[in-house]
Structure formats: structure tokens, C-alpha cells
Specification:
With 369 residues, the protein is an alpha/beta fold. 40% of the residues lie in helices and 19% in strands. The protein has a 7-stranded parallel beta sheet with strand order 3-2-1-6-7-8-9. Helix 2 links the parallel strand 2 (34-39) and strand 3 (55-58). The protein is globular.
């Protein structure tokens, strides 16, 4: 049996969501593949959205960024945690190489933990880097990281192939780079069907509040309940404890809580919801930008702390989709009205970016086998 092992960064949902699309594309072509996923990303992301079966192993693959919440990060703790991880890196590589050998791995795909690449090199297994940034590039923005950056860059030099996604940074030490179109979750459902299935208003403009796994506290939900001309959908990224009593049982004014687990249980996926709304209110990240692009949904974003990828994403968005900025003060105070109005008045971009990267990635990976 041919075994592919994915090493997936647990930083946010974006890495996992795009890898799931590649895995689905692989299984469509080769249902006989055995696929193992090693990550700290939530297991339910895979069990609820993989069209087939994978073996999920919760494994520390990298340390990513230390997030306080979706909009705030701890730079010092980020660097210290990454340095601590690298101090035990050699032992981790030995253990992972033994795992790959024991599992009979044919190919390793890393998005983009250096651990998977180093282990594959030691085990004599081909390794592919997949992503839009490398961790040496991310950490290079923080002081005191020269040795860390050099060590990680040297590991990336061992990849057999680098599949680079749009809105990229890094990859300086990788060779044999192929640029892919966007890998994105694209809904095939009619937005009206999704709205009916989730009991959402069919004729009102919907704004989905989406701040990922780290969540966001402190929004003035009472103010949001008074939005005019919009219904704000509050999902799991906003703690239910933040909801005033009158909002916990259902819609109040312009605010409507939505249960994501219930949505998945009904056979819908998150991209169905993204396609069904008019705008997503979020922080910039590869995953949500790609998803809004693929589903023709506008994006209202706010700043997310000292993260070098932010500037790359913000520069790319105007050419890809309708995008607008809201500062933290207006975001938390619920003063969204003028920002939403201005955003939805924007014309669509002239060019439409391709979003078939998962299919191309799957073909390239199968060619390596």
C-alpha cells in the first residue's frame, strides 16, 4: 500500500483546510492511498471534511506563532518556544524518521513544518514542501532569531519539490519550486439552499464573523445587534459566554448566533456558509482569503499584530477580491456599518484568480510516486 504522510502546521486553520483539499483531490484520484496526518490542528477538521479516511496522529510538528487571540501575538514567547523546540530537534527527527520507516512511507508532504522534511531526509523518503510561506521567513522578522532562521532554512534545502502557493514569502533555500494557483475550499451549493438549510434570512445581507480557532473576545455584540441592513452571524470564534442573555437562544436584532458543529452535522461545510454570506469579517490569513476568493464573497479585515505575512496578504487582496479594512477601535465597538457599506459598493476585480491548486498539487504528488 502506498503511504503518504502529511506534516501540517497547527498554526490556525488555514494550513489544515488547504491540505484537506489536496488530500481530497488525491483520494478522488487514488482511493487506495493510505494517508497519515501528523499535526496539532483539531482532529474534527479532518474527520468532518475529508472525503474518505485518513489516519490522524496528534503530534507536535512545529511551534508556529504564540497567539494571545486571533489579533494579538506574543513575539517573545514565539521566539523562545521555537528555540526550545529546535534544542530537542535532533531527537525528534530520529523518532520521526523511525516512524516513517515503520509505516513504509512513500512520500512526505510538509505544510510547512521543518520536522517532516528533516525526518524524511533521514529516512530516505522524498519530501515536498507545500505552502505560501516558510517558517525561517516568518521568524526572520523577530529580533534574536539569526541562528533559528539559518537552521530552519538549511532544513528546507532538503526538499525534493516545493509547491509554492500565491501570496508567498520565503522559500529562499528551496530548489525545484513550482508555483501553484490557489488551493481553496470551494462550495458547490447554491447559496439560497445553504441559507434555507441553516434557517438564515434569505433576503438580508449577511456578515459572517470569522476569527478562527483562537477566537476573539470583547466585541460589542449589543452594538452589532443594531446594525442596519445586515445580519451579523456569530460563530464559534466568538465565545458564547460573551453573548448577552437575550442573544443566546437565537436572533436578536441584527445578531444571529450560528452553531458550526450543527452545520457540519447537517452535511454542510464552512465554505458553503462563506458562499452563502455577503461578507466575511476576519483577520487576513491565506485560508480565509482563498475561501472568499473561491466563493465570490467580500472580505472586511482588521490588523493582526506583528506578523510578516500580513503585509504580503494586504498587498495582494485588492487584486483578488473586494476587500476593506476596519480598525480595532471600530471593530470592537461594533461600528461596522460604514465599512460594510463601502466594501459592498466596490466593483469586482477585473481578473479572476484560479483556485484549482489542489488538483494540480495532487497530480504533481502522484507523479512523484
Amino acid at each position: 500500500m502506498t503511504t503518504l504522510v502529511f506534516y501540517v502546521s497547527g498554526h490556525g486553520f488555514g494550513h489544515a483546510s488547504r491540505d484537506i483539499e489536496v488530500i481530497n483531490a488525491l483520494l478522488t484520484r487514488r482511493p487506495d492511498l493510505r494517508i497519515i496526518v501528523r499535526t496539532t490542528a483539531a482532529s474534527w477538521l479532518f474527520t468532518l471534511t475529508i472525503r474518505g479516511s485518513v489516519e490522524y496522529h496528534r503530534t507536535d510538528t512545529d511551534t508556529g506563532i504564540v497567539q494571545i487571540d486571533s489579533l494579538h501575538l506574543d513575539t517573545g514567547a514565539t521566539v523562545l518556544r521555537a528555540q526550545e523546540f529546535m534544542r530537542s530537534f535532533d531527537d525528534r527527527v530520529v523518532a520521526e524518521a523511525a516512524f516513517l520507516h515503520h509505516q513504509g512511507a512513500s512520500l512526505v508532504i510538509a505544510d510547512l513544518p521543518p520536522l517532516g522534511i528533516a525526518a524524511a531526509s533521514r529516512a530516505g523518503v522524498p519530501a515536498v514542501a507545500l505552502g505560501n510561506f516558510t517558517w525561517d521567513w516568518i521568524y526572520s522578522a523577530y529580533p534574536g532569531t539569526d541562528d533559528l532562521v539559518q537552521s530552519i532554512g538549511e532544513i528546507y534545502a532538503h526538499v525534493n519539490l516545493a509547491l509554492r502557493l500565491p501570496m508567498s514569502g520565503g522559500f529562499a533555500t528551496c530548489s525545484n519550486i513550482i508555483d501553484l494557483p490557489f488551493v481553496a475550499r470551494r462550495s458547490s451549493r447554491d447559496p439560497r439552499e445553504t441559507r434555507r438549510a441553516l434557517a438564515l434570512p434569505e433576503r438580508e445581507r449577511l456578515a459572517l464573523v470569522s476569527f478562527g480557532g483562537y477566537g476573539l473576545e470583547g466585541l460589542d455584540l449589543e452594538a452589532l445587534s443594531r446594525l442596519e441592513g445586515y445580519v451579523a452571524l456569530v460563530s464559534g470564534s466568538v465565545p458564547l459566554a460573551d453573548l448577552p442573555d437575550g442573544l443566546r437562544g437565537g436572533r436578536r436584532g441584527s445578531l444571529l448566533p450560528i452553531d458550526e458543529r450543527e452545520m457540519y452535522g447537517s452535511g454542510l461545510r464552512y465554505e458553503d456558509l462563506v458562499r452563502a454570506v455577503d461578507v466575511v469579517v476576519t483577520k487576513p490569513g491565506y485560508g480565509i482569503i482563498a475561501e472568499c476568493l473561491a466563493n465570490d464573497t467580500a472580505l472586511l479585515y482588521t490588523s493582526r499584530g506583528h506578523f510578516i505575512e500580513y503585509d504580503v496578504l494586504v498587498a495582494a487582496m485588492p487584486q483578488l477580491l473586494r476587500a476593506g479594512y476596519v480598525g480595532h477601535a471600530d471593530l470592537f465597538a461594533g461600528r461596522w456599518q460604514p465599512h460594510l457599506d463601502a466594501l459592498l459598493a466596490q466593483p469586482e476585480p477585473h481578473a479572476r484568480a484560479s483556485v484549482n491548486g489542489a488538483d494540480i498539487a495532487a497530480e504533481l504528488l502522484l507523479d512523484l510516486l
